Amino acid sequence: MFERIKHDAAEAARKTALTLVGAVFGTVGLAFLTVAAWLVLAEIQTTQFAALVIGLAYLGVAGVLIALASSGRSKPPVPVAPAVPENPMASVIAAFLQGAQAGAQTGASSARRP
């Protein structure tokens, strides 16, 4: 039991660490892309234009993410009724009666034969 808990904790820590490292690398990559966009836009137009375009791009991405987060598409979970535990003796009795009935039918058919 404790091995399962240790395994689950290790798996959660691994996933968290990989997600965190991925987020750091994604942030660094986004920073480089922002600088590259700034350099290109500042070369084509003024630095004010570059700041405006990059700021609007970030604002647009933020708006889309906020809209997706608040869309409310997720449905509430459907409650599942707990399974009613079956009495094991009821299964044993049913199997016994079924066997007795099959035996009686077999005995009745063999009694008719000469």
UniProtKB/TrEMBL annotation:
What Pfam families does the entry give? Phage_holin_3_6
Transmembrane segment boundaries:
20-41, 47-69
What domain of life does the UniProt record list for this protein's source?
Answer: Bacteria
Q: Which UniProt keywords apply?
A: Membrane, Transmembrane, Transmembrane helix
Q: Which protein are we looking at?
A: Holin-X, holin superfamily III
Q: Which organism is it from?
A: Aquimixticola soesokkakensis
